[in-house]
Specification:
By secondary structure, the protein is of the alpha/beta class. The protein contains 14 helices and 17 strands. 40% of the residues lie in helices and 21% in strands. The strands form four sheets. The chain has a nine-stranded mixed sheet with strand order 9-10-8-7-6-5-4-1-11, with helices on both faces. The protein has a three-stranded antiparallel sheet with strand order 12-13-14. Helix 1 runs parallel beside helix 2, helix 2 packs parallel to helix 3 and helix 11 packs antiparallel against helix 14. It is globular. Bound molecules: iron/sulfur cluster (SF4). The site of iron/sulfur cluster has 11 residues, from loops.
């Protein structure tokens, strides 16, 4: 294999930090000249990777953040056009967006430059909850902007967050139903994770509104509402109308090698691809002889080398995030029996798939599979 299947480009800028966020992103304004330099630097990097042949068969790209829409229409178009040139065989190009910077001009630029899919960070459609999360948009603004994105013909996904401050079972239901009424093809749902060092982390230690039972109840409610509206859950946190699954995220869960560009991006590569990437990322160390796969982040520059066995265990673990699970023949019979005994998996024809409990107790399920790495 000489090309990655997926490219991720990280845009580490936001208009303001959200109260729960520990992602790598700096607060800035849309007229900051640093944004022009940033686009130029990332495009130069993408071109260098393209020259090595590393992007020749890349089928999905994802411009994430941060807030890519903060770049504004012309910078975003430049970036996306550059990615399109560098990856001639792209079938999907997603871009993350926040409602407050998703202007009509940005939507037009996204459509015109070759974005196919917008993933909008909505999180909630209740003003009081948005305020507690430190989000910049209101519920009305989010609805209006998502509606405009859907009307543009782009494939639109919405991210929602549950087990957040001020949220109740009823307000969560309203948010889910309001999102459905916007006509989006894809919804991702995550329980809020309270991280140390963030304003929310400083204000709360294990609050009742975020405990595991609340998280489980909200995730179950999301499944019930979204599935009754024609969305299928294809991954633990992802729901899609027919044909609207995210190719890029599926690449992450099915062991497709991916390259991350920009500070804050992660990569996962087999040995040969790693050697090629080393030609551009000169800071990467030599790989050890038994390396089947390397994972690294451009933020902390930490590289993890995986042996064949570890890469296999990781693929099983990632595969169990998906509704269809993994081929049962790939799992040792004793492990299949143990997981069946604990009610974490079920067998469906030749596949082993997670049960509802398997998803709720994901750490237990993934831990047993990761133990196979020895
Ligand atoms: S918009 Fe996203 S990346 Fe930016 S501060 Fe909020 S959660 Fe973090």
């Amino acid at each position: 294999m000489s090309s990655v299947g997926a490219l991720y480009l990280h845009v580490p800028f936001c208009a303001r930090k959200c109260a729960y966020c520990d992602f790598f992103s700096a607060q800035t304004r849309p007229d900051d000249p640093k944004l022009d330099e940033f686009v130029g630097r990332q495009l130069a990097l993408v071109r260098r990777f393209s020259e090595t042949g590393l992007l020749s068969d890349c089928v999905t790209a994802y411009v994430g953040g941060g807030t890519p829409t903060l770049l504004g229409a012309s910078r975003l178009a430049r970036l996306v056009e550059g990615i399109r040139e560098a990856c001639p065989h792209l079938e999907e190009l997603s871009c993350e967006a926040n409602p407050d910077s998703l202007t009509d001009e940005v939507i037009d630029a996204a459509v015109g430059s070759g974005v196919t899919r917008l993933s909008v960070g909505v999180q909630s459609l209740e003003d009081v909850e948005l305020e507690r999360l430190g989000r910049l948009h209101t519920a009305a603004q989010a609805k209006e902007r998502v509606g405009a994105a859907v009307a543009s013909g782009l494939d639109v996904s919405v991210d929602l967050m549950c087990a957040i401050p001020s949220q109740t079972t009823r307000s969560w239901d309203r948010t889910l139903r309001d999102v459905v009424s916007l006509g989006v093809g894809h919804v991702s749902v995550y329980p809020l994770s309270i991280e140390e060092g963030t304003p929310l982390g400083r204000a709360y230690v294990d609050p009742a509104w975020n405990d595991e039972d609340v998280q489980a109840e909200r995730m179950e409610r999301a499944a019930a509402v979204l599935e009754s509206e024609g969305y299928s859950r294809y991954e633990v946190a992802s729901y899609a109308k027919p044909g609207r699954q995210c190719m890029h995220n599926q690449a992450y869960w099915t062991g497709v090698p991916y390259l991350g560009v920009g500070r804050g991006a992660a990569s996962m590569l087999d040995g040969n691809l790693y050697d090629t990437v080393r030609e551009v990322y000169g800071w990467l160390p030599m790989r050890p002889r038994d390396c089947a796969r390397a994972r690294f982040s451009t933020l902390d520059r930490e590289v993890e080398f995986l042996s064949e066995r570890e890469a296999w265990a990781e693929d099983l673990m990632l595969g169990m995030r998906l509704t269809r699970g993994v081929k049962v023949a790939e799992v040792p019979p004793a492990t299949v029996s143990e997981l069946l005994g604990r009610g974490l998996v079920k067998l469906e024809e030749d596949r082993m798939a997670p049960t509802h409990d398997g998803w709720l107790l994901g750490n237990e399920l993934y831990g047993i599979l990761w133990d196979l790495a020895g």
